[in-house]
Specification:
Number of helices of chain A: 9
CATH superfamily of the largest domain in chain A: Alpha/Beta hydrolase fold, catalytic domain
CATH architecture of the largest domain in chain A: 3-Layer(aba) Sandwich
Helix content of chain A: 10-25%
Number of domains of chain A: 2
Radius of gyration of chain A: 22 Å
Largest sheet of chain A: 8 strands, mixed
Shape of chain A: globular
CATH class of the largest domain in chain A: Alpha Beta
Structural class of chain A: alpha+beta
Oligomer: homodimer
Largest interface: A-B, 75 and 75 residues
Strand content of chain A: 25-35%
Distance between the termini of chain A: 57 Å
Strand order of the largest sheet of chain A: 12-13-15-14-16-17-18-19
Order of helices and strands of chain A: EEEEEEEEEEEEEEHHEHHEHEHHEHEH
Number of strands of chain A: 19
Chain lengths: 373, 373
Amino acid sequence: MIALAVVLAVPALAQRPIPGWTKVSETALPFRQYPRVDAANQIYWRLYAPKAENVYVDCRGQIPMQKDPDGWWYATSRPMAVGFHFYHFVVDGVTVTDPDCDVFDGRYGRSAAAEIPEGPEGDYYRTQNVPHGMVREVRYWSEYEQQWRRAMVYTPAEYELAKNARKKYPVLYLQHGMSEDEGSWPKQGRVGNIMDNLIAAGECKPMIVVMNSGNCGIRSGTPGVDFNAWAASFEPVLIQDIIPMVEKEFRALTGRENRAMAGLSWGGKQTLDIAMSHPDLFSYVGLFSAATNVREDQFDTAYNGIFADAAAFNKKFHYFFIGLGTEERMSSAGLSERLTAHGINNTFYSSEGTDHEWLTWRRFLKEFVPHLF
Amino acid sequence: MIALAVVLAVPALAQRPIPGWTKVSETALPFRQYPRVDAANQIYWRLYAPKAENVYVDCRGQIPMQKDPDGWWYATSRPMAVGFHFYHFVVDGVTVTDPDCDVFDGRYGRSAAAEIPEGPEGDYYRTQNVPHGMVREVRYWSEYEQQWRRAMVYTPAEYELAKNARKKYPVLYLQHGMSEDEGSWPKQGRVGNIMDNLIAAGECKPMIVVMNSGNCGIRSGTPGVDFNAWAASFEPVLIQDIIPMVEKEFRALTGRENRAMAGLSWGGKQTLDIAMSHPDLFSYVGLFSAATNVREDQFDTAYNGIFADAAAFNKKFHYFFIGLGTEERMSSAGLSERLTAHGINNTFYSSEGTDHEWLTWRRFLKEFVPHLF
């Protein structure tokens, strides 16, 4: 007698056969047949809702679902940009998480997603037969927030080896986007696989990667309210609480030469704001589809005038990365050209065919970290 | 312009005021007001479903929800057993995960849950100001399964200290129940907090705790089919793949004197089956609400007759723990008495007032580990 056993009721009526040209999305839970994807980058969904009158999928737009007589609803997307796409069902106005799908930290909660796979060019973010580092869950006290917080910290495989027991490593602080949290990079960002594969190939230095929730100051408001202040509330937590914790709990090298910061979207704004306000702390910066820019008329005064002396800036920052996907529209568009026009060294990387989603950011991480330390 | 920002539509009609005598469940997502709990151990739920005709909560039975004119549905549970309770909504026949709640690995997927808190007696599983170990996500190749798997591995705080760089630790292999996976013990089981607090108090030895999915052989069938064979398919993965990986990747002591195995429910059956079949591998055993027993007429023959010689058994196994909650009915009821009647030393622990749920198993872990190693 197993009290926990929950067997989902499956109706006896004949169901649509599985489309033979599709395969199960890698985001589906074990044993499940949906969501599915095909070679044309279309996503296939299914949901049992026998009494519902109107059902659609919310996945970069509304995709109506069609009902079969047996109570199952089906939908197929248009051909999508390759990569990772959050979605949910809306059943007569109710948000429904696909019970067949794993969930990911995003959309201000736990959301299903489908992944349109790449071919061998995606091997860099897949688990390979190389030495594997570990992503560790770390609890730390935030004096600023007056609460316990959780960091996710990647350490490289060699960190565990007895011969390296006294070796110290440089640190990348890596931020998620709005509506996400510290669980996003390790899971859909595939940080462990990307770092393992690059390190094993000798393409980047072994380093520690520290991922934290940038959602601070939550007692002062709700998401979307006071965008700038909300973003800024992460700064004291990072500087006063997180960096000292990392340099105490891990074998971390200290000093600005050994610290990088990068972030995506809203986390890209946090990265620019924090790194430019604290050039004493970081010497490498990555802006991944960043939700920020620097206005031309404020160029010489922004961040205490840090851009005004290009030669000094270029000496101080060893690598300044700006990335955008070709299918997205973000406020950091044009930032690279503006920096260049002012003599500020930076590297712009365009992610071909990808939208404001995680494949874009996996690519940026892969392009960014080989230039660090 | 933040493409990822998803703001949930909140209707303008006046909503029911928050009941003042309740508080938000610790399982709710940040910013959310529901689910809630009160001092009478009742759970309060809310869901927006303006067009739905029939909505209930599935939480140890069906609890009908009532609709307000503004489209919000509400329900309050009966007084529940203290602890952790999975639930989902059923909206006109559709399973709906509460969008206000975090999700946990269970119910064959990702399920919401509410937690009815204990008072100070629950401090042992809460985050305290003590040295914190880490739960690490580890990827390993399973030769038996021919696929990559994920282990969650707790290492104690002192594991990181330079002075312990050559110190090795004993290992507890800890299994989840049916419908759950390797993410269950670290999250709702609160393994990190429980171990940290016990180690800091000097109540148990520093040890490594290894948590894996016991769901193996999944290519051979679906959940619920061939219960015994499905449970048994974990044995070769544990013995051939996991134990060697742990003893290679971690500073783990080897040999049966330094290994314990415990599991809950279906994982308790796996624990009894594996440990009794391999007395060369383990010397400590924990059965937490185990879904198993040993029939009287098979007592002398089960597991190659290991129980037939009580004196030899008692010499070999240093601690044999059996736990049950007072509010649950499991097949291992009576096993302790039967073992005792046959002269087999064992410790029975009854969890007062708890059901087949995670508070029961947190308590068992707390009672079990002080007797190890």
